[in-house]
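Customer escalation, tier 2.

The customer says the design service returned an amino acid string that "doesn't look like it belongs to this structure." They asked us to rerun it and document both sides in this ticket. The original structure tokens are below, unchanged.
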């Protein structure tokens, strides 16, 4: 649908932050009620492995390699006993395979030695594990334990800024804090998936698919982009 110059130049600017969050949450609840991670896993240990491997790699690729890896090393104990040569061939097609192999080895050993083979349920404990940063820890605690923790990746960071959920966030931590402060705690674990999936399939980095997005009416990026187009035509 083509908008008139008048419509674009007089776009509503009176929406408060609270109203913006309410509108966006309502839209996602209606249009993406069952949002969840696209990584395949059957237990917390498998998800932890998958998330570690997914850094700077696609979920599609990770889902291709993990079935054989999970079958070969079904428990922290079996993975902890494995050598670099045992593990690396399973993940050779994943980005930074050498480093990630070392991370998996160290992670499994620490799980066994320090956590009784159980995946910790707090961010503070999870980040002690090799290969686990704040984002990974937030994913685990959010997905497995439904804690109100927001993992901010490139998709979440981009989408949040574009649609106006965050303002002048300079890094992922600032973005995380703004999102946590404004999203109801019971919805944070869902909001993580809403924003990731929206960024993965609609609000993509290059040439976002605004024509199929239901949030253009309140999207700051869409408004500024359309304003530029209208002014250019004028």
């Amino acid at each position: 649908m083509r908008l008139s110059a008048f419509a674009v130049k007089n776009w509503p600017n009176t929406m408060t932050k609270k109203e913006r969050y309410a509108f966006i949450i309502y839209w996602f609840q209606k249009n993406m009620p069952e949002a969840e991670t696209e990584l395949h896993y059957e237990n917390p240990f498998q998800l932890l492995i998958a998330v570690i491997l997914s850094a700077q790699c696609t979920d599609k690729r990770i889902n291709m390699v993990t079935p054989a890896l999970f079958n070969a090393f079904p428990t922290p104990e079996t993975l902890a006993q494995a050598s670099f040569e045992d593990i690396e061939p399973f993940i050779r097609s994943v980005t930074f395979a050498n480093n990630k192999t070392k991370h998996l080895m160290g992670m499994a050993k620490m799980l066994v030695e320090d956590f009784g083979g159980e995946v910790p349920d707090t961010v503070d404990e999870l980040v002690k594990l090799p290969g686990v940063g704040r984002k990974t820890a937030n994913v685990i605690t959010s997905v497995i334990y439904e804690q109100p923790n927001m993992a901010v990746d490139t998709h979440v960071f981009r989408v949040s800024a574009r649609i106006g959920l965050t303002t002048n966030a300079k890094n992922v931590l600032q973005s995380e804090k703004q999102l946590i402060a404004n999203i109801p705690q019971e919805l944070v674990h869902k909001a993580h998936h809403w924003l990731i999936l929206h960024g993965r399939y609609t609000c993509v980095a290059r040439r976002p698919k605004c024509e199929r997005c239901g949030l253009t009416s309140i999207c700051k990026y869409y408004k500024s982009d359309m304003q530029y187009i209208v002014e250019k035509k004028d």
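Tier 2 assessment: The sequence is consistent with the input. The chain has two domains: 5-31+149-233, 44-143. The CA atoms of residues 103 and 191 lie 28 Å apart. Sent an explanation to the customer and offered a walkthrough call.
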